[in-house]
Amino acid sequence: MADEIRVEVARYRPDKDREPGWQEYDVPLRTDWTVLDALNHVKNEVDSTLAFRWSCRMGICGSCGMNVQGEPRLSCATFLTDYAPGPVRVEPLANFPVVRDLVVDIDDFLEKLPRVKPWIIRDEEKSVDDGEYLQSPEELEAYQQFSMCINCMLCYAACPVYGLDPDFVGPAAIALAERYDLDSRDQGARQRLDVLIEAEGVYGCTFVGECTRVCPKHVDPAGAIQRYKLKAAQESVKAFLLPRAFR
Amino acid sequence: MSRATGDDLSYRRPVPLWWWLHKRTYFVFVMRELSSIFIAWLVLYLLLFVRAVGRGEAAYQDFLDDAASPWLVTLNVIAFAFIVLHTITWFSLTPQAMVVRVRGHRVPGIAIIAGQYAALAAVTAFVAWLVLS
Amino acid sequence: MKFRIEPFVWLAFSGGGVLAALFMPVLAFLFALAFPLGWIDPPSHDHLDAIVSNPLTFLVLFGLFVVMLVHAAHRFRYTLYDGLQIKHRVLVGTLCYGAVLVGAFACLQFLGGATQ
Ligand code: SF4
Ligand code: FES
């Protein structure tokens, strides 16, 4: 095996460049090195101006998402050897504005998340004296898959609908809405439905399914969105075809 | 960093017009969606078929002869291929789109898919029996 | 609860998708390929005529065809938005769903004509 691999990194310096360009670096090809290790090597040894986000290096924090060879990936969980002999292209996450080099502007995502009210909503709060809300293992299992999201936004980078229509609420936010809807302690499904039934909510999705394919945590946002469509449709039919008494 | 400056200088990458040619999964997706045209075409074709039957023996024979012309056969072969694509993709996506529970237990996806193919077989057998018997 | 038309259109789209997946393969195979090309001997005119002049056939085919047309129009609308990045949403929507109305009218005419 060659002992080096070429990494082509998208660079964008907002003060100097009018659009992003490519810069190539040769980095050691070590079996235990990830794309993030390669970038850190460049930053430490070659070019300290390279900008990118990371934190945990273990697929937990969700901050190191990048498009590697055109695929949205966690760069800390993507091994260089999978791309040998190279070169391997590293770009900022697709569908987001580029702030600098590999750093994208995530404000839009941060604005969308709270829109679906991702917290436990109660018609009436229990007082502390009444004790905690108990939950059985089955009730936990009902939503657990959707609670694994690490907000890495790979699903947004993979979603062509979001790319073409940035108003679309998007995969992770809808999966999170589903997470709380399925929580036995929650009573806020109706409120979330009112948000997601809008045109930029679930019905903007055309079930491309890419979000689920790229999700590093197997959250299956595409499944969550389709189930939400069905749920919204059932509720709509009920609300407008049945007399009040039967709802 | 002031917000205004950051906004002005961040770079928005345009989506290329033919974005779905760049990745295999996107391409398959668009082909799946394009099956809609062929469904619409086949509905029209079947309508014309029924109309020909309603117009009598001679019109029916004429229609069958016309339908054997190379152009129509080519079109219909393509349409049939897209129908198959539609059926396969539709069936395989169903378990993701709906959760089926039997007595509290979630039915595994593979069983939902198998059930749909069983339904397909039943419908096919019924239509074939009706038309050919 | 808010009233939105999307959930209802989506239900029709889904129903049409299911019906197309179940019925179209056999219908397309028999009527568009096997009979014209003589892979299978086409049924006699009398037999088919008996089938299509049954009012039940009219109802079933009318329902089937119209829902499948809604399915196709709805899907194609999004293909135009996303695949070709056509921005005139209202125009595209009007054309697609308008085509369904025309199609439904044609179904009424052609299927009804064969029933008499
Ligand atoms: S759903 Fe998956 S891909 Fe999307 S943000 Fe959450 S963990 Fe990342
Ligand atoms: S650095 Fe935390 S997920 Fe990669």
TrEMBL record, chain A:
Residue ranges of every copy of the 4Fe-4S ferredoxin-type domain listed in the record: 140-169
Family that this chain belongs to: Belongs to the succinate dehydrogenase/fumarate reductase iron-sulfur protein family.
The entry's keywords: 2Fe-2S, 3Fe-4S, 4Fe-4S, Iron, Iron-sulfur, Metal-binding, Oxidoreductase, Tricarboxylic acid cycle
Coiled coil: none
Pathway: Carbohydrate metabolism; tricarboxylic acid cycle
NCBIfam families reported for this sequence: dhsB, PRK05950.1, PRK12385.1
Documented EC number(s): 1.3.5.1
Catalytic reaction list: a menaquinone + succinate = a menaquinol + fumarate
Any one Gene Ontology molecular-function term assigned to this protein's record: electron transfer activity
Cofactor(s) this protein cannot do without: [2Fe-2S] cluster; [4Fe-4S] cluster; [3Fe-4S] cluster
Protein's name according to its UniProt entry: Fumarate reductase iron-sulfur subunit
One example of a Gene Ontology biological process annotation: respiratory electron transport chain
Gene3D superfamilies referenced in this protein's UniProt entry, alphabetically: 3.10.20.30, Alpha-helical ferredoxin (1.10.1060.10)
InterPro entries, alphabetized: 2Fe-2S_ferredoxin-like_sf, 2Fe-2S_ferredoxin-type, 2Fe2S_fd_BS, 4Fe4S_Fe-S-bd, 4Fe4S_Fe_S_CS, Beta-grasp_dom_sf, Helical_ferredxn, SDH/FRD_Iron-Sulfur
